Amino acid sequence: MHKFIFWLLLVILSIGMCIFTGLQAMDRYETKSTVMGLERDFYFWRTPVASFTVCPMRRLSQDLFDKYCQKKKITGTHKEDLQLFLETLANSTYFNFANITVRPSIDSTLDRLRLKPAQYMSLIYNLTTDFTQMEDENERIRLNDGFKNFVVRQVLTEFGICYLGNSYLHDEYTARYLLFGKYPKINKEHVKMLLGSYFDSVLLILSVPKTFESIGVFIHSSHDALKIEQKFFYTNEAVYYKAETREIIAEDGFEKATTIAQRNCRFPHESNLEHFEIYTKSFCMQECRLNMVYKKCKCIPHFYPNRIRNPKPVCSYAALKSCVAKNAENFRRLHSLKARKTVHCHCMDSCFNSIVVVKSVEVLANLNVFQTGFTVGVEVTTWPLELLKRQVIFTFTDLLVAVGGAAGLFLGFSVLGAIEFFYYFTLRLLWYLRGYRY
Predict the structure, then answer these.
(1) What is the pLDDT of residues 45-96, one digit of tens each?
(2) In the prediction, which pLDDT does 370 show?
(3) What span, in angstroms and rounded, lies between the C-alpha atoms of 346 and 261?
(4) Residues 172/278, Cβ–Cβ less than 8 Å
(5) Angstrom distance (rounded) from CA 99 to CA 153
(6) So where does this one cross the membrane (predicted)?
(7) pLDDT computed for residue 372 by the predictor
(8) What pLDDT digit, counting tens, does each position of 111-126 carry?
């Protein structure tokens, strides 16, 4: 009897240790199977130059606005008040919602136009010139390095309609697609990205037409969009940045060998967002922010894409100037932990990304390189000596080895033993019951 109890306790202990060790191996496989490795073979890298996003401070086209007012028969004071309202609305964001200019005639004009808040952004878009499509090269916004021209696209941001150049982001990230589901015309002869190596020194120049008058400049990762919380630079003169970029990449087969939960990052096509078809951490934070606004104010600002199955109500100018403006600081910084938990805000990193460090900014007053406007330049003279790479260090095969090893250590389990166990209690038992003895 004592021997039976001893062996029973030993078996229970062995099974418990086997289960404990197996669960540890499973937890490692599910949550700790990937690492960020460091590589130093910098002679062979092709590193992307940082992306530009520039936002004009004057948004509406005077010609397009005049034609719109002529068509709608809006004149005099009503026209002036409407232009000021739409211009400030087009420039509004979490920093200045309270500054939207509303004069007494606006409500009657909006009623006459039957302009609902959901139509704010489409009207602003239709009254804005797309400077990537201008026929006259001197009036077009363009990006080049002195040898090749690069793609520039009109995009929709939390600062309104802006222009993005030198970006890996998919073509779905354009203002026209986000608002209407239509792809814009992109010159296929233009190159999408500028890459450089350890032996290169590059200068990427964005030529801005004089119509812009002044711009806000953002320098950021070529794998992501601008973030509203990052620093930006207002200028109406030529401005040049010296920047360095360290890229974060993934090893070959990384996506297929892992799940999203294992690697704790997402590729662009793995979007779980409602308002954006592609995933980046910036888009995730934008969706988190708009959901916080919706939770608090029961509407969302006009500059978010809302082409979804059940569109959210868009804030009227009154809601923007009151509820959203009052809580803008918390929305902008995503400060409200209670609201973040309520809207399930958890933003993973992008599996491909880059870290941009601006070394210096220099304003070159009265520099007019193309005699048609001013320029924004990014110069790269030094390249990173280290590269971060996402790698798998604990595969499914490693999991099988760990679980099998624990079972073998504590229970003497093996695949042959399992087959023999199956055989004794199926085929051999069946033949025994049928009278066969051997």
Answers:
(1) 888 999 989 999 889 999 999 999 999 999 999 999 999 999 999 999 999 9
(2) 44
(3) 12
(4) yes
(5) 28
(6) 6-26, 399-425
(7) 59
(8) 999 999 999 999 999 9
Q: Which residues contact 274 (CB under 8 A, 6 or more apart)?
A: 287, 308
pTM score: 0.87
Q: Could you give the angle at which helices 396-411 and 2-31 cross, rounded to 10 degrees?
A: 170
Look up residue 284 and give its two tokens: 């995730």
What does the chain come to in residues?
438
Decide if 303 contacts 93 (C-beta within 8 A).
yes
Q: Tokens 């009623």 map to which residue?
A: 111
Low-confidence ranges of the chain (pLDDT < 50): 337, 369-370
For Cα atoms 57, 58, 61, give the angle at the middle one, nearest 5 degrees. 155
| Amino acid letter for position 240 | Y
* Sign of the alpha-carbon dihedral angle for 278, 279, 280, 284: positive
Say which residue the tokens 């302009």 belong to. Answer: 115
**290 φ/ψ angles, rounded to the nearest 5 degrees:** -65, -35
